[in-house]
Amino acid sequence: MTLENYKDLPAEIPVIKEKELIYPFMIIPIFLEEKEDIIAIQKAINDHSLIFVSIKDEPGTYGTIGTIIRKVTLPEGKVKILFQGLARGKIIEITDKNPTIAIVDKVASEPGDKKEVSALLETLKEHIVTLSELNPFFPKDFIKIIDSNSDADRIVDIIASSLKLPIEKGYELFKEINTKERLIKLIHFILEEIESIKLKNELSRKVMEQVQEANREHLLKQQLKLIQQELGMTNELEEEIKEYREKLEQLKPCMREDAYKEIKKQIDRLSRMHPDSAEATTTQNYIEWALEVPFCNYAKEDFSIEELQKRLDKDHYGLKKPKERIVEYFAAKELAKKRNEEFSGATLCFVGPPGVGKTSLANSIAKALDRNLVRIALGGLEDVNELRGHRRTYIGAMPGRIAQGIINAKEMNPVMVLDEIDKISRYRGDPTAVLLEILDPEQNTHFRDLYLNFDLDLSKVLFIATANDPSTIPAPLRDRMEMIFIGSYTPQEKFEIAKRYLIPQEAKKHSLKKSEVSISDAALREIIDKYTKEAGVRNLRRIIAKIMRKAALEILEGKEKVKVTLKNLKDYLEKGYYGIEAVEKKDKVGVVNGLAWTPVGGDVLKVEAVKYRGKGQVILTGQLGDVMKESAHIAFTLIKVLIDNKKIKVKEKSKEPIYYKYNVHIHVPEGAIPKDGPSAGITMATAIASIFSETKVKSDVAMTGEITLTGEVLPIGGLKEKLIAAYKAKIKKVLIPVKNYERDLDDVPEEVKEGLEIVPVKTIDEVLDHALVK
């Protein structure tokens, strides 16, 4: 059935709607599922009529008049037809619905000027060549079609169908009657396509320049990102960036301007990065760290001196002097606050041997102030960046320990313990200089962390330092701190601490009830005297924990109650004794009890001296330091002078002085342990005097003091620890310098003072008078 069979157009023919444009030259399958369309094609088949296919069924709509070559019935009521387009047509009038029947007329073209059409066709050919070069998928045989076809309208229809134009533009070209205008519009559409392809190629080139050597997967992700941006789609990173911006705006009222600008700048940078790049990961880590800083969170500063006093008394037994100093410090600080005055008090530094409660005192202060406690271990710290933070120049950089401490505390004014401040090393930079800035109220309001790259206000942070040996703290840093010395515990104090705190705490840790385990007082005193040597109670806690573990095993095996007594103590502990043993009761020549200070408390240090035939030389053994060696030579010279002055009687008769006939060997036992200090001066002098006068030294006498060439006894340090060690060793009499007696005796526990005869001495004569057996 052809168009020539119907000379009487316009005529009534069925109309079907199709979403895509169908051109007159096309033979194309059409799938139909609408009931009215199926009825329409069936009517056309029954009436042997043409059919009209258009995008709408309204008067004035342009479409294609054609015929049905074949019809195939499909499942579910669907139908497929093979449609052949014959000519363009136009709906004149709708005459019926369901199915749509319309009066359709053939549309005749207006050819226009042949020369103009020919020129436009040449121009079209040029642009077709350009388009085929840019688009490898565009058919390259259109030039032959143009050259071999004399119908310009047919050429326009063929090329337009291949361009896959949007329906609006395609329909605009389809309904145009004037051939010249149709060619102009087609050329315009081709030019738009050429520009579009060029733009796409340019974008692809720019993307390739950005990703450079990236692989195909990376390129696809980059293009996907661009597509998502164009479509308004968001990915996971964009959701996180949105959350970052919201949190930043919430914190903005609490933070300084430099912090806000830096964090905002990094969020903006992250939004422009590829989510899988290493730089994006580094930047995102920074943003998460920075937004964790608790800019708006401050602990309430409700403070009560009475509450602090109660908390210290509750958590710690003894320590009367340190507690008083702490309360006085905070009383002055509270008074300054109430009067709106600046408090310029130095940072507290608790100094003492390990295990005496330095860190736990800081913990009690934090509880009394109702603030979080942050502990920063400085022992072995050698890199300044550990405190100030690492610059963000590599993956793995982190904020410094100070910034991390504030982040972990989740408040801007925690109690921060700078633990073991005396053990800082120097390898990269000077950590001490950073600590000076941190502890200085004039500087710490603008402490800059190198990782965060903005200032932190540390003025509200309460810093508390701890140290074992204050002499190793650099002088400028020591000047910033107020030292509170916490000495060794006496056996009685250890006993009370164990009864009140250690035993209940360890029992609870090991899931033992109070009624299930007990340690007798005698057994506890035996543990303190024979199993511990330390100044504090850390090792005592470990020993009690060991007993509790054995007790837990016995309870689990069915025992109702575990009683640890002096008789069965060896069943729970090994036989090794580590305490300070009582001194020998036998008086000996050349053996003197000295007193020494060590980082773990005081100790009794025996000094031994012998003489043998020689030329007056001094031999020193026992791994002695330079200061102690000098004390030995001073003591030897002093004794020579006393012998010459007849103040020390020598039994052996000879023409030349006795000290020229003998060499003196001084030994301090436990040679594996380094020993140094001037306080053994009078001890060595007494030992040398004993061997030359052949007089025994009293075994129940101990002494400490520095000696001069003129025989004067000078003061020493660590008196409290030394006297406690003498008390533990059951010494009866202790000789100490007069100045120590006058200024340091108040710090010594009453229990120790009552158990010792403490004798102040001013000269070596007094020392020898008390020490040598008459």
UniProtKB/TrEMBL annotation:
Positions contributing to ATP binding: 352-359
Q: What biological process terms from GO does the record include?
A: cellular response to heat; protein quality control for misfolded or incompletely synthesized proteins
One GO cellular component term, please give it.
cytoplasm
Q: Which Gene Ontology MF annotations are present?
A: ATP binding; ATP hydrolysis activity; ATP-dependent peptidase activity; sequence-specific DNA binding; serine-type endopeptidase activity
Q: Where is the Lon proteolytic domain?
A: 586-774
**Catalytic activity, per the record?**
Hydrolysis of proteins in presence of ATP
Q: Could you tell me which InterPro entries the record lists for this protein?
A: AAA+_ATPase (IPR003593), ATPase_AAA_core (IPR003959), Lon_bac (IPR027543), Lon_bac/euk-typ (IPR004815), Lon_lid (IPR054594), Lon_proteolytic (IPR008269), Lon_Prtase (IPR027065), Lon_prtase_N (IPR003111)
Q: Does the keyword rRNA processing apply?
A: no
Keywords from UniProt, A to Z, are:
ATP-binding, Coiled coil, Cytoplasm, Hydrolase, Nucleotide-binding, Protease, Serine protease, Stress response
Which positions are catalytic residues?
Answer: 679, 722
Give the multimer and partner information.
Homohexamer. Organized in a ring with a central cavity.
Family indicated by similarity: Belongs to the peptidase S16 family.
Query: What protein name does the entry list?
Result: Lon protease
* Classification of source organism: Bacteria, Pseudomonadati, Campylobacterota, Epsilonproteobacteria, Nautiliales
Protein's gene = lon
